[in-house]
Amino acid sequence: GNIEQVDPHLLGRLIGKGGKALRQLKEDTNCRIIVADNGRIWIDGEFDGIVAARDLLNAMSDNAKLTGVDA
Questions:
Q1: What is the pTM of this model?
Q2: What pLDDT shows up at residue 49?
Q3: How do beta strands 2-5 and 40-44 pair?
Q4: Rg (the chain; Cα; Å)
Q5: Cα separation, 35 vs 43, whole angstroms
Q6: Do the beta carbons of residue 62 and residue 7 sit within 8 Å?
Q7: Taking CA atoms, which of 18, 22, 63, 65 is between 20 and 30 Å from 5?
Q8: Mean pLDDT score, 48-61
Q9: What is the DSSP string of the chain?
Q10: pLDDT tens by residue, 29-46
Q11: What is the mean pLDDT of the segment spanning 49-71?
């Protein structure tokens, strides 16, 4: 597995309404993803899926920062 760190105030944006964005990320990458309140995100699965999940999370985080949208 792999552990990523995001700003805790962006977690709501990354998880999505009712967990929709997180659920979609799990389906798209075929990975298990566990999000902690402190902003740490654990990703487990095949190497390609982990890399894809990490890249998507980073893109989502960067986009949230650029648009200034918080949880």
A1: 0.84
A2: 96
A3: antiparallel
A4: 11
A5: 9
A6: no
A7: 18
A8: 92
A9: -EEEE--GGGHHHHH-GGGHHHHHHHHHHT-EEEE-TTSEEEEES-HHHHHHHHHHHHHHHHHHHHHT---
A10: 999 999 999 999 999 999
A11: 82
